[in-house]
Structures are given as structure tokens and as C-alpha cells.
Give the backbone structure.
Amino acid sequence: MSVIKELARKESKGKSFRGGHSLCRGCGIPIVVRTVLNSIDTPVVVISATGCLEVATTRFPTTAWNVPWLHVAFENAAAAASGVETAYKALKKREAIPDDEPVTFVVFGGDGGTYDIGLQSLSGALERGHRFLYVCYDNEAYMNTGIQRSSATPFGASTTTSPSGKKSYGKAQKRKDLTAIMEAHHLSYVGQSSISHWYDLSTKVKKAVSTEGPAFINVLSTCQLGWRHEPKDAVNVARLAVETCFWPLYEVVEGHYNLTHEPIKKLPVKTWLKTQGRFSHLFQETNKSVLERIQQDVDEDWNRLLDRCSQDAHYFEKQEPTFLREMKQARL
Amino acid sequence: MSNSLKKYSEILVGGTVIAKEVEQPETGSWRLGLKPEVDLDKCVDCLLCWINCPDTAVMINNDSDFTGFDYTYCKGCELCAEICPTNAIQMVAEDKPVAEFGRKK
Amino acid sequence: MNRTLEKPSLDFETELLTGAQAAAHAMRQVNPDVVSVYPITPQTPIIQTFSQFVADGRATTEMINVESEHSAMSAAIGAASAGARTATATASQGLALMIENIYIAASMRLPIVLAIGNRALSAPINIHCDHSDSMLARDSGVIQIYVENAQEAYDYMIMASRIAEYKDVLLPIMICQDGFTITHTAEPVSLLDDDSVREFVGDYHIPYSLLNLDRPVTQGPFDMPDYYFEHKRQQQEAMEQVPAVLEAIQNEYYALSGRQYSSVDAYRMDDADYAIVILGSAAGTVKDVVDKLRDENKKAGVLKIRSFRPFEQEKIKYHLSQLKGIAVLDRSMSFGSYGPLYTEISRSMHKSKPFLQNYIYGLGGRDLFPDQIKKVYHDLLTGDITGDLRYIGLRE
């Protein structure tokens, strides 16, 4: 049976995440949540940080979650998860819950609650080695509070707290590389994926939950309201981010880098930028240098990633497809 | 639908909600006049519409076959129509008669 | 130092312990499932002593060495929601940092035990005792008990779980002991045996655990104006159950230990004309002064409040309404208004006659001396009352 059919079968046995929530039409977050939860075979307990996902899915007295779910505050999803995971260990120790009932703890946080205010508690939880999967749905701003910039917002993007205007071209800082920060915690598994590549995400989730300790996956999730595109283009816009190499899909397994998706043709980043209203000001003549800078940054980061992946290729014993090898040769 | 407002003594303490006892709001009312309709002759059961639906509104049966749309929750975002590789899904007027679960008549 | 002490009539082990060590012993015997720890003076000896117990296998608690107090309380909330008996300890800036989670734990109805080593809030930074830190949490919905000495700290740390976990209560509980004065001062503490404590605290139950996979629950939802008020009203209801529960647990503890506790400690109050109302360790000094005044035939008494939240208006009014003068001594300030304890007492006394005078003392660890206490009683006796805020020991 194909992978997607297996995921569908998991959901047909019982939906973990159901409709009736008030996330926007065409929101990318449920794609993340459903793919993640359908890729996990064991029972799950979900811990959420404050954000779009939490607020829109649990308006009292309704809930979209058909699995145990906990929300505490904005910056402490990972700390709360540490407590839940430790309690699970303690209760198994005193035999209050059966030893043979595995449970997977999944934490969902937005980029705001992960890159910024939640970074400390995430770092602490990872250092302590609690066994959970942290999934960041990265829509590149504080969307729930009205599209304010976070440290995940791309350079040059217009948000309500970094608006483009007569004297501004949008966000003046380059976005943080959180996946690299996570990797520095010596996790067994770190992944970067996108809503446009469900198979990539699902595979990463399966690898992540099989590790003994904490694992982290950063998933690009479009926001039709904040990025300003049509709801129906949610997946297409995410795909372009991947195909322009703005958001590469890769993983770090025991510190070894592996590219999990190489675009057939690396498109210029403009192709992605022009699909969204938050970048439309960059196409004015006055902002030409900003566009150039963005392309330069993407190229540098992409080449650095490719180098790193080549260095570690032996670890994965990969047989590189001939045409890709030839393409890389042509680039040099 | 029992969502009339309850007194403080009638709800669980601590904000607890028991998932199985909840009736979700019918977000199908969010649609702006268009709903998805599928032509089963064109559908190849790839399930891309299912995995990408933000509202878990694409229905599948126990054999993982596509069976249609759940109009109770579908918000009409058109993601399924956009993503369908065989153009089997079209957005049609809300009042257009369709067969069960959004199938083309 | 001669360590042979006369044993009390009931056959218990007596050890020379600081308040912090006594609290750690209580935690060892209660043996919570999960304890999250982050250091801050003056509660650090609590977690250090407890960590050693765990390292030696004398407690089987799972400890989480978190990276901040905010995370300590977050982890405690996670663990408590998952069905584990949980405790943590903090003080001062740590309490201030975790304050949002203290409100959250109370609102989520999680019976977490917090050992507090009362310490002043910055700025300037000060590591010594006053009550400003726990007063910060007085509106949060957490139960607050103030103890006078190491023995009370030990006893209440054992009773804490039972009070907090009672099915109609389900609130976090703070057992507050004065920083340094109690936490770091050693005195003889009579300990119960491990089995008695284990039997006394029993098992931990919450109605809806996250780890009950057959009946998934959503904890910590989003409220709009249509439900928030009702959720808050439930918390008030829970607080209203505490006095009866507190009394029942205290009585049960008396049978176990021979020590009878009450939500207020009325010392020589039966026929008193003038009294000081106070929280915490300074009550001990006041009791000595009361004894001296009584020797001089002056009808002085002291009312030490243990349960600050809930504040038992009726019981306190009963002890105070026949007095001629009351001095309320606060070890924290509420800038722009009167001390918090004074404000509560004023409310209790609003239909009664005795005149009230508020004094602020001991901020940032400044000691309270017998001569100063004597002066307070003198003010009451001579009717030297203005109703304005006064300060004891301040250079002004």
C-alpha cells in the first residue's frame, strides 16, 4: 500500500485532528498537524504553545483535538512537555500506567513561540534530553496577533511591525537559522520540511520519533493572510519556496547533513517573492538592491548547505542520481 | 446542537474539555458561495486533496479510497481544486445540485 | 552543642534541622512523582537537600533540573496535568518570573505544592526576608500558608498535598517560610516516621489526566468573554471549601503527630485588650514580648495568621472584635496604599469598633526587635493611633 494510503488508513481509524476549528480558509498549519499525527503509529499526547493553532482549535467548549492536548502559555510548550514526559516516566516507574503502552509526545509551536519567546525553554528541554518531537510550524511572523515580525521573518518582508514604507523596505534583519541552533544541541535528528512536500515531512516524522531522545522538525507553513496570497495557493507558494532554495529540505542525522530534496532546476528567488503581497514593495526600482541581497543570501546559504551535505554524503552511502551529479558539476 | 451557554456549576473545573463529548461548530457556513465538486471519472485516488485539506473535510473510506467532501466543515478554500493533478475537482456554485458527498451528478 | 533533647511524649525522632532541611525531609517522606528545581536564595537548601535524598535513593522522585523558574512551574503544570504528584520551590525573583504560571496552575486546578523561602523583590536586589514575593501571588488563586518555624514548615509541607488535592479544592498551595530566619536557622524538629507520612498523604488523583488515552481531554483552552467569568467563579468556590478542608486535615494531623494546628494561632488572646496581628517568624518574637507584658499585668496578645489565602474573615473577626486596639504588622508594602495584611484586617473589622493601626516592618530582611514591638503595644495602650501608615526601624 502506498504511503499516502497508509496515512489515510490511520486517519480513517480515528481522526486525531478534526474540522470545525476556526483556522483560516487555506491555512497551512492543519496540513502540518495532520501529516505529523497521521505519521505516528503510537498514541500521542500533544502540547501546544499559544498561537494560531492553539487559539483557533480550542475555543471553549469546543476542541478540534481528539487526542490528549495541553496548552499552558506562549513560551513554555517545551517546558510543559518536559513535565508531561517526566510524569509519564514516573508513573510507569510506580506502575500507575502499563509499561508496554508507548506514548509519543508531540509539541507544536509557531515560529514566534519557538524562535523567539520559546527559545529558552526549548533549549533547556533539548539539553535535558526529554523524549519528544518538537514541530515548529514556521509561517514567518506572529500571525495570530496580526502579522508582526518575528526572528523567522525573511529579510525584506513587510509585516505590521516591520512595514515597508517611504523610509523602509521591510524587515532589515536576516532571519535566524533555527535548524542550525537545534543541531547545535546534539540532537539525534533535526529536520527541515514544508507543507508542499507531505512525503518528505512524513518520512522525517517517522525518523524523528524513532530516536531515543528529543527531535526537532521545522516546517514551512504558508499563511494566506500574512503572506498575502490566495488561500488556494497555500501549497503552491510553499513549493516555490523550496524550488527557489529559499527553504531547502534537509535533515541532520547524528550531526550529519543530508539533503532530502534537490530541486530539478533552482529557480530565482524572485519567482517565490512575487507570489506574495508581503514582498510586492521589493519590485519597486528603489528596492532593487534588497532583491539582489536576498538572492545573494539564498545562494550563499544554499551553497554552504550543499557543501555540508557533500562532506557528510559518505555517512548516508548515497548513490547520487547521475543527472544530479552532472548538474552539480556544471554549476562549479 | 447543545451550545447554549452553561452556568459555572454546569461546566468542568479548570477549563477541561472532554474531546468525545464535544460538538464542533459547523464551519461549512464559512463558504462564500462556492463548494468543491468531484468528477469521479477523472479522480485517480491520489489523496492529495485529502492530505492537504485544512479542515479534514475530505472523506475517505476504510480502504483509503476517496469518497467525497464533508460540507459540514468545508470552508471552500479551493485548495483541493487547485492541487488536484487531474482537474477532477471543480468549484461550483453553492446551490448547484451534486450527488452524495460532492460528486458530480 | 548538646544534642540530646528530651523526647516528646509521643515517640518521634527529633533532629536539629533548618526550615529548609525540614521542608526537604517532608518532601522526601511525601515522595512526589516529579519535582522541578531551579536555584534561588534562600530556597536553594531545600532543593539541594532533596536532591541528595534522591541521589541516595531515599526518595524515588523524578527530578527535572530546569533552566528557569518559569520553566520549573511550566514543567510542574505539565507533570501535574499528566497525573503526577508534583512540587517545586522558589522565592523572590523566581516567584515573580513564574507568576503567570502560578495563575495558570490555579486556573487549571492543579494541586502543585510550592515551598517558598520568602525573600524581598528587587530592586535593589536583596536576598533577605520579607513577604513581598508571596504577596505578589495573593490574587492568583493559590492557597497561601505562612509558617512560624521549622517545625511548622515540616508539618505543613506534609499536610500541603492533602489540602491541595482534596477533590473540591484542587488548587496549588504555597507553604511560605521566612527566608534565612526560618530557612537557614536550625532548631529541633520532631519528625514522623516514613510509613505514617506515606499513609497520611495517600495516592494522587486528578479527575481528568492527560495520560488517560481512552478519554482524551483538552486542557488549557481558549475562553472568550462568554465563559471566562464562569471559570473564575469556580476558583472562588474552590477557595471557599478550603477552610473546612484545612481544619479537617489539621485535626487528622493532630492524631498522627500530637500537634494541633489551626488557620490562625491565637496567643493569649482570650482576655486580651490589645493585640498585634502578624504573619511569619516575627510572631515568635512578639510572643516573647507578650509574655513580658503579661508579667506586667498588661493584657496583650498576638494573633498570628497562618492561612492568608483563603483569608478567614469570620474567624479572625471573632478573635479581634472585643479588643480595644489592634496593630497590624506587615512585612511587605503596597505602594500607594496600606499593607496587604492591614487591608484584609480592615475588611474583617469593618463593622466592629477596635481602632486599627498599620505598621510596616522588616523589609529586605531588617530585623524586628523586642523593644520595637514593645513600643507598638505602648502606642495601642496609650491610644497613640493616627490611622496613617507607620514604619518600624526605618531611618526617617
